[in-house]
């Protein structure tokens, strides 16, 4: 294959240049990310399996209902029995840390681009690029800059999973009813009050949809990131491919699917129910259930 | 400078490029359409001046796109004016620094919206307290004040519901409560009742009028409903193509519309409701003057028979109304064999209508009285008569 234009070698040069001149900065960024995600993983490992499972089942019962809670319980028990619990928790930890970093960067960026046409114009093509570039491709520079292990995995995941958080925050704020924004202004909101009292609360369903998508994309990318040694369920998936082990592939794949369904339904419930029903705080819900029991 | 609570002077709003150039061209007499075609600028509001008195309900009317919604947003500066001044209590809002503008909005003005614009995730009470919360009023005090205004609009029992649990009319009561909670001296209402069905709309108009009775506020009310404008407006301003083309009381606009555009607004309305005795009066009743000497009964009787009339009125030499007499009564007087002078004691005494009395009062008097009703002008001089037949003919004409 002859090339007239060798874009690839330029990119190589850029990465090489970064590596030679800024490796210190990347190292310290890497150790922050690593420390953060190890902390989250340790937190998830702290309680025994049954307590973590009970937590998810309780969450499912509160947000969705008894049937979903039962599904959650059965799924997790299945994962424990097939011997994938530990890897599942590692994957969960990676997903959470990548998601948190994505949201920490993505939501403020989304707010900024909702408030400034120029920022929106600049971020848009970058987000398109981040989202459409095949996910594997990020792994190469990430691994070169941060070495192998969980850090390049999380960095690549953040890049892949952040766009929906930015986009849907931006969209949500822009779509807030014009008269509601005017109401905020006409009652004397300054720009900070307008953001926190009017725009963000009214953009919440859209922002939560962004959070949901970010989690789902993070989960799928975390599996792929096992190629650079991120660990978790992805390792088993990768191993099953390398060994053509259909059984292992099915078991580990199923664990991923079940985890995905549970995370999706629970985060989705936070986006959709907020605007249509009463504010159900967990304690009001519990007290209502207890009253019902007593009668 | 004119005086008034709100004074708007030579206000312009141009959307798009070349704002100042467009205004210069407007002043040179270019039309709105020409400026749009050649400069790409849309004229929202063009050279509008008017004033609103303290405690007045001023209704802005116009077809959609006539600039009425833009005009009110220039007054509280949700939209930045391109040129001109807006004085509220003598303070020029158009040139106010942003921090003072925010202060003014928190303290002394509020707004009610067509789509209600309530925050869906806040309870009714928290919505009503919104302005107070923004102004930094403590939780306890703002909740108390929110409850007080909710009580005024009859929604105190719904304080802990969410907006979506309420009907449209009730939601707009919350919108009104939110506007009242900050206790402003002026409220801007943008088609506030237009989204409601006719019954609810009337009900809300009553709520507003009732509130005005207890605490008069200056209100600018945008509407496209002429019935609503005439019902609640002390004065009405009519807008066309960004210009304010006529301002006046409902009666003045009905009587002297400035153009066919203004007249068209009133065409759909049953303006007969706004007819007065002055407009209905006619010289339909034969008139006799008691100039020291009473009119002769036989002559009056013969006259009435000849004219085919049933009543005659008598006035004194100053044209003050003295009384009325029917043909039947005259016939009895003449039948006694001799003629007599129609002295005051033979006449039927009626309290005359005054020229400015409205239709409902005229009808009431005509029902109570057998014959036609005399009408006097503001000085008490006889001006004409209204008979039942005359009234029905006029109503049919309208």
UniProtKB/TrEMBL annotation, chain B:
<keyword id="KW-1003">Cell membrane</keyword>
<dbReference type="GO" id="GO:0005524">
    <property type="term" value="F:ATP binding"/>
</dbReference>
<dbReference type="InterPro" id="IPR005892">
    <property type="entry name" value="Gly-betaine_transp_ATP-bd"/>
</dbReference>
<dbReference type="InterPro" id="IPR027417">
    <property type="entry name" value="P-loop_NTPase"/>
</dbReference>
<keyword id="KW-0997">Cell inner membrane</keyword>
<keyword id="KW-0129">CBS domain</keyword>
<keyword id="KW-0067">ATP-binding</keyword>
<dbReference type="InterPro" id="IPR003593">
    <property type="entry name" value="AAA+_ATPase"/>
</dbReference>
<feature type="domain" description="CBS">
    <location>
        <begin position="346"/>
        <end position="398"/>
    </location>
</feature>
<keyword id="KW-0029">Amino-acid transport</keyword>
<dbReference type="InterPro" id="IPR051921">
    <property type="entry name" value="ABC_osmolyte_uptake_ATP-bind"/>
</dbReference>
<dbReference type="InterPro" id="IPR003439">
    <property type="entry name" value="ABC_transporter-like_ATP-bd"/>
</dbReference>
<keyword id="KW-0547">Nucleotide-binding</keyword>
<dbReference type="Pfam" id="PF00005">
    <property type="entry name" value="ABC_tran"/>
</dbReference>
<dbReference type="GO" id="GO:0031460">
    <property type="term" value="P:glycine betaine transport"/>
</dbReference>
<dbReference type="GO" id="GO:0015418">
    <property type="term" value="F:ABC-type quaternary ammonium compound transporting activity"/>
</dbReference>
<dbReference type="GO" id="GO:0006865">
    <property type="term" value="P:amino acid transport"/>
</dbReference>
<dbReference type="InterPro" id="IPR000644">
    <property type="entry name" value="CBS_dom"/>
</dbReference>
<dbReference type="GO" id="GO:0006970">
    <property type="term" value="P:response to osmotic stress"/>
</dbReference>
<comment type="subunit">
    <text>The complex is probably composed of two ATP-binding proteins, two transmembrane proteins and a solute-binding protein.</text>
</comment>
<dbReference type="GO" id="GO:0005886">
    <property type="term" value="C:plasma membrane"/>
</dbReference>
<comment type="similarity">
    <text>Belongs to the ABC transporter superfamily.</text>
</comment>
<keyword id="KW-0472">Membrane</keyword>
<dbReference type="InterPro" id="IPR046342">
    <property type="entry name" value="CBS_dom_sf"/>
</dbReference>
<protein>
    <recommendedName>
        <fullName>Quaternary amine transport ATP-binding protein</fullName>
        <ecNumber>7.6.2.9</ecNumber>
    </recommendedName>
</protein>
<feature type="domain" description="ABC transporter">
    <location>
        <begin position="6"/>
        <end position="266"/>
    </location>
</feature>
<keyword id="KW-0813">Transport</keyword>
<dbReference type="GO" id="GO:0016887">
    <property type="term" value="F:ATP hydrolysis activity"/>
</dbReference>
<dbReference type="InterPro" id="IPR017871">
    <property type="entry name" value="ABC_transporter-like_CS"/>
</dbReference>
């Amino acid at each position: 294959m002859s090339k007239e234009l060798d874009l690839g070698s330029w990119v190589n040069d850029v990465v090489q240049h970064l590596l030679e001149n800024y490796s210190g900065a990347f190292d310290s960024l890497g150790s922050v990310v690593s420390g953060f995600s190890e902390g989250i993983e340790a937190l998830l490992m702290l309680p025994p399996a049954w307590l973590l499972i009970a937590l998810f089942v309780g969450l499912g019962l509160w947000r969705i209902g008894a049937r979903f809670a039962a599904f959650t319980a059965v799924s997790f028990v299945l994962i424990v029995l097939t011997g994938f619990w530990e890897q599942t928790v590692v994957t969960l930890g990676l997903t959470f840390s990548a998601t948190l970093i994505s949201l920490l960067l993505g939501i403020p960026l989304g707010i900024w681009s909702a408030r400034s046409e120029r920022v929106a114009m600049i971020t848009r093509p970058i987000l398109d690029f981040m989202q459409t570039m095949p996910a594997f491709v990020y792994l190469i520079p990430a691994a070169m800059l941060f070495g192998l292990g969980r850090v390049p995995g999380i960095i690549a995941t953040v890049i892949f999973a952040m766009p929906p958080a930015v986009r849907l925050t931006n969209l949500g704020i822009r779509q807030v009813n014009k008269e509601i924004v005017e109401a905020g202004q006409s009652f004397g909101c300054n720009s900070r009050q307008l953001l926190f009292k009017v725009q963000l609360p009214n953009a919440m369903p859209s922002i939560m949809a962004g959070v949901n998508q970010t989690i789902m994309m993070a989960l799928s990318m975390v599996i792929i990131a096992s190629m650079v040694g991120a660990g978790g369920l992805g390792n088993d998936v990768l191993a099953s491919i390398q060994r053509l082990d259909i059984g292992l592939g099915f078991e580990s794949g199923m664990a991923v699917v079940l985890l995905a369904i549970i995370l999706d339904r629970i985060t989705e419930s936070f986006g959709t129910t907020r605007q249509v029903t009463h504010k159900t705080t967990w304690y009001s819900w519990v007290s209502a259930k207890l009253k019902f029991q007593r009668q | 400078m004119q005086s008034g609570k709100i004074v708007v002077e030579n206000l312009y709003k141009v959307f798009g490029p070349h704002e100042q150039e467009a205004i210069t061209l407007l002043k040179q007499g270019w039309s709105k359409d020409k400026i749009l075609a050649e400069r790409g600028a849309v004229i929202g509001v063009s050279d509008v001046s008017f004033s609103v008195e303290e405690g007045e309900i001023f209704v802005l009317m116009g077809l959609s796109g006539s600039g009425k919604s833009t005009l009110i947003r220039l007054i509280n500066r949700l939209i930045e004016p391109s040129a001109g001044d807006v004085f509220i209590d003598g303070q020029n809002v158009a040139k106010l620094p942003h921090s003072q503008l925010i202060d003014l909005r928190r303290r002394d003005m509020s707004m009610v919206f067509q789509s209600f614009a309530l925050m869906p995730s806040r309870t009714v009470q928290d919505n009503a307290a919104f302005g107070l919360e923004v102004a930094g009023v403590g939780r306890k005090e703002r909740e108390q004040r929110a409850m007080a205004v909710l009580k005024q609009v009859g929604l105190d029992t719904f304080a802990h519901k969410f907006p979506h649990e309420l009907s449209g009319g009730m939601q707009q009561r919350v919108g009104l409560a939110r506007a009242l909670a900050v206790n402003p001296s002026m409220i801007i209402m943008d088609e506030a009742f237009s989204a409601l069905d006719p019954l609810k709309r009337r009900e809300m108009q009553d709520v507003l009028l009732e509130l005005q009775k207890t605490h008069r506020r200056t209100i600018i009310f945008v509407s496209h409903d002429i019935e609503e404008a005439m019902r609640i407006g002390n004065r009405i301003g009519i807008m066309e193509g960004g210009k304010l083309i006529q301002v006046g009381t409902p009666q003045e606009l009905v009587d002297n519309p400035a153009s066919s555009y203004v007249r068209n607004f009133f065409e759909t309305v049953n303006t007969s409701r706004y007819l007065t005795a002055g407009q209905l009066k006619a010289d339909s009743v034969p008139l006799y003057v008691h100039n020291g000497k009473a009119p002769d009964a036989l002559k009056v009787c013969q006259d009435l028979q000849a004219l085919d009339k049933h009543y005659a009125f008598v006035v004194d030499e100053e044209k003050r109304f003295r009384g009325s007499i029917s043909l039947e009564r005259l016939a009895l007087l003449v039948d006694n064999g001799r003629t007599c002078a129609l002295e005051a004691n033979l006449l039927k005494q009626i309290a005359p209508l005054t020229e400015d009395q409205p239709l409902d009062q005229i009808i009431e008097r005509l029902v109570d009285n057998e014959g036609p009703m005399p009408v006097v002008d503001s000085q008490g001089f006889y001006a004409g008569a209204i008979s039942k037949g005359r009234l029905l003919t006029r109503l049919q004409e309208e």
